[in-house]
């Protein structure tokens, strides 16, 4: 019963992965052979495709990706946590609140990009409200802020939902005990809520990290493709691929893959978000049942 | 008091930018830059412009529906079987497969498109539906398997045992007993997979450059140059609203299920 899944994953994930890694060491196009004829084909290029990794454009894209990831995930955790704490106490109007919190999550990223582009127009509503004349969507430092705002708007509610689910499984008796012991709300939050909600929070952060590191459509729509100030690694790879520079595109893709894998590994190791052991223990349960 | 303020704050945070898009879409092109909270007068000008000849927007909605619908259907078919096997059957290497499924969702789409673009160019799949459907399964399938495995595990094993004692084969027990019971979970997963595919961008923008095959998310992002008005923002907002409406309806009707589905994989 697993074989269809395996076939699909092999075709759409493992084949591209292996092909991309191979491609990243090859160069294709035309060159002269030993007799002076033009031949077309591809040949081993060693690390030539990776040369771009130390160049300005790649480093800039890597820096942008990292900046967006760190800032947006940090903001989303703070905002998401705050939202979850409010929603846990909400009884009346809970359905309305839940529906509205799902809206930013459901809006397609491309549409969210357009929406914020409109809000951030030179004569748009953001400048009117702020009383400023900032060119948010032009290539420049403000464009970074625009992307960060738009991304945070779209994904903080998602973090909030995951954290809320984590909050709801904390037994109320723990809070009653804390109250009896005279804990202040501040102490209750740091000593009880945060440690107990940590597993759910870490999973949410991990999801967001992996997602934020491959951010592509938001800067593409909000500011535009090939804009230096907001070009991310995915944007750079896409640009190289559509210009048929498969070699460098694959090399950068492999680099991005390694970057994401490394961050995930460090995150899981450092913070003990032990997803795989969970899989293992669940597997054990299933075996016990059988 | 604080609680009330917090709730209103969250609702405003989530809805105000969206509200601005909706309001702007109902303004006339002439007063698109108005900052009044409600359009005066209301106008459907932008919506007419969206469906004007040559915009290809209606077509792109159909394309999105075909791509997201087919991906969801195929993914469910394949993913349900896999999830059932992972939840119930005992075999060697099962944990490796589950770990792989999680790892797959970590893959950057940008890496996958390079070889797939090359492959699809070779076999002539550029500008076809399947060039969008097949790669979309790379994220829809892990999502489906992960959600459904969680769901199948919650169903008691005795149900199948009872069915098998009554003479069902293992497969019949799955099809006649488990599948109907799992229908709510499958349905939830279908909604999530559909929304994920509907919102997909990087694959669709790479594999298709023919306007008549573009999905809606790609089409509206490219309105800018093609419009004959000085700023196509009204048109873009109207198109944005139209692309989002199906999703907003899904959210309104199935919010409880969606929240359950979103958080299921993360908690258990």
Automatic annotation (TrEMBL), chain A:
Organism superkingdom: Bacteria
Record's bilayer topology term: Multi-pass membrane protein
GO terms for cellular component: plasma membrane
Residues in ABC transmembrane type-1 domain copies: 62-267
One GO term of the biological process aspect: transmembrane transport
UniProt KW Nuclease keyword: no
Subcellular location: Cell membrane; Membrane
TM ranges: 67-87, 99-119, 158-177, 189-210, 251-272
Keyword Transmembrane helix annotated: yes
Keywords: Membrane, Transmembrane, Transmembrane helix, Transport
Family, as annotated: Belongs to the binding-protein-dependent transport system permease family.
Protein name as catalogued: Sugar ABC transporter permease
Organism: Nonomuraea longispora
From TrEMBL, chain B:
Residues making up the signal peptide according to the UniProt record: none
Domain ABC transmembrane type-1: 61-254
Localization (cell): Cell membrane
GO cellular component, one term: plasma membrane
Keyword RNA-binding: no
Biological process (GO), any one: transmembrane transport
Keyword tags: Cell membrane, Membrane, Transmembrane, Transmembrane helix, Transport
Entry membrane topology: Multi-pass membrane protein
UniProt xrefs under Gene3D superfamilies: MetI-like (1.10.3720.10)
PANTHER family reported in the protein's UniProt record: INNER MEMBRANE ABC TRANSPORTER PERMEASE PROTEIN YCJP, MALTOSE TRANSPORT SYSTEM PERMEASE-RELATED
Descriptive protein name: Carbohydrate ABC transporter permease
């Amino acid at each position: 019963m697993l074989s269809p899944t395996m076939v699909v994953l092999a075709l759409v994930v493992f084949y591209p992965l292996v092909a991309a890694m191979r491609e990243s060491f090859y160069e294709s196009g035309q060159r002269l052979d030993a007799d002076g004829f033009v031949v077309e084909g591809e040949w081993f290029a060693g690390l030539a495709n990776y040369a771009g990794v130390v160049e300005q454009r790649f480093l800039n894209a890597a820096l942008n990706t990292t900046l967006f990831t760190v800032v947006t995930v940090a903001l989303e955790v703070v905002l998401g946590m705050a939202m979850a704490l409010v929603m846990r106490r909400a009884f009346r109007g809970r359905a309305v609140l839940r529906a509205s919190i799902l809206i930013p999550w459901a809006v397609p990223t491309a549409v969210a990009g357009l929406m914020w582009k409109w809000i951030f127009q030179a004569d748009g509503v953001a400048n009117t409200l702020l009383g400023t004349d900032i060119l948010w969507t032009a290539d420049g430092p403000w464009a970074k802020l625009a992307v960060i705002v738009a991304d945070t708007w779209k994904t903080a509610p998602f973090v909030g939902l995951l954290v809320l689910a984590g909050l709801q499984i904390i037994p109320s008796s723990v809070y009653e005990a804390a109250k009896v012991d005279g804990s202040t709300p501040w102490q209750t939050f740091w000593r009880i809520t945060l440690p107990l909600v940590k597993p759910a929070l870490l999973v949410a952060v991990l999801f967001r990290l992996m997602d934020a590191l491959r951010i592509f459509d938001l800067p593409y729509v909000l500011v535009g493709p090939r804009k230096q100030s907001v070009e991310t690694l995915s944007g750079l790879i896409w640009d190289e691929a559509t210009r048929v520079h498969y070699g460098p595109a694959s090399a950068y893709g492999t680099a991005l893959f390694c970057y994401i894998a490394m961050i995930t590994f460090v995150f899981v190791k450092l913070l003990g978000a032990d997803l795989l052991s969970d899989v293992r223990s669940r597997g054990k349960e299933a075996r016990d049942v059988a | 008091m604080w609680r009330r303020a917090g709730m209103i704050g969250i609702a405003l945070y989530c809805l105000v930018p969206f509200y601005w898009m909706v309001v702007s879409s109902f303004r006339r092109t002439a007063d698109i830059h108005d900052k009044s909270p409600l359009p005066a007068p209301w106008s459907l000008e932008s919506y007419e412009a969206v469906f004007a000849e040559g915009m290809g927007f209606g077509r792109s909605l159909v394309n999105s529906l075909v791509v997201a619908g087919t991906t969801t259907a195929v993914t469910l078919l394949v993913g349900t079987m896999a999830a059932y096997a992972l939840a119930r059957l005992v075999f060697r290497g099962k944990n490796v497969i589950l770990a792989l499924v999680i790892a797959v969702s970590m893959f950057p789409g940008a890496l996958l498109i390079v070889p797939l673009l090359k492959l699809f160019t070779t076999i002539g799949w550029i500008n076809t539906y399947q060039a969008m459907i097949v790669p979309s399964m790379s994220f829809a399938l892990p999502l489906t398997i992960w959600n459904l495995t969680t769901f199948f595990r919650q169903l008691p094993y005795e149900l199948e045992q009872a069915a098998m004692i009554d003479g069902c084969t293992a497969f019949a027990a799955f099809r006649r007993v488990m599948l109907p019971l799992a229908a709510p979970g499958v349905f939830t997963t279908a909604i999530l997979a559909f929304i994920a595919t509907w919102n997909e961008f990087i694959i669709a923008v790479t594999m298709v450059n023919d306007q008549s095959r573009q999905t809606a998310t790609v089409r509206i992002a490219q309105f800018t140059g093609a419009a004959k008005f000085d700023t196509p923002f009204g048109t873009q907002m109207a198109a944005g609203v139209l692309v989002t409406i199906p999703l907003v309806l899904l959210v309104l009707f199935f919010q409880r299920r969606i929240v359950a589905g979103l958080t299921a994989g993360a908690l258990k």
